[in-house]
Amino acid sequence: MIYDPSFDEDAERAEEAVLKVVADWLKGQPQDVWLMFVKCMNYDFMTDVVKSVMLDNPDCDLAIIAWFFWNLDPGYRVES
C-alpha cells in the first residue's frame, strides 16, 4: 500500500469539523447536559471543547468544573 500524505490532513480536518459541531451543539445546551457530557466524554479529544465552551463561560456551574478537574487525576501528575 502506498502512503497518501493527504490522508493525515483530511483526517485532521474531519476531526476539527466534528469538534466544532460538538462545541456548537454544547453551547445551546443547559448545564445539566454539560455535566453529563463531562462525565461521559473522551478526555483525549474533547478537552479543548470543554475548555472553550464550558470552563471559559463565567456562568459555568462549579460542579462541572470540579468534575472535570478531578477526572483529570491531578494526584497522578503531582506524584509523577
Principal-axes shape call: flat
Low-confidence stretches: none
How does the helix and strand content classify structurally? mainly alpha
Helix content: over 70%
Strand content: under 5%
Kindly provide the radius of gyration, computed on alpha-carbon positions and rounded to a whole number of angstroms.
16 Å
So how many helices? 5
Spell the H/E element sequence: HHHHH
Distance N terminus to C terminus?
41 Å
Largest sheet: none
Mean pLDDT: 88
Please tally the β strands and state the result: 0
Features of this protein?
80 residues; mainly alpha; 5 helices; flat
Describe the structure.
The mean pLDDT is 88. The protein is mostly helical and 80 residues long. The chain has helices at 6-27, 31-40, 47-55, 62-71, 74-79. The protein contains five helices and no strands. 10% of the residues are buried. It is flat, with a radius of gyration of 16 Å. The longest helix is centred in the first third of the chain and has 22 residues, at 6-27.
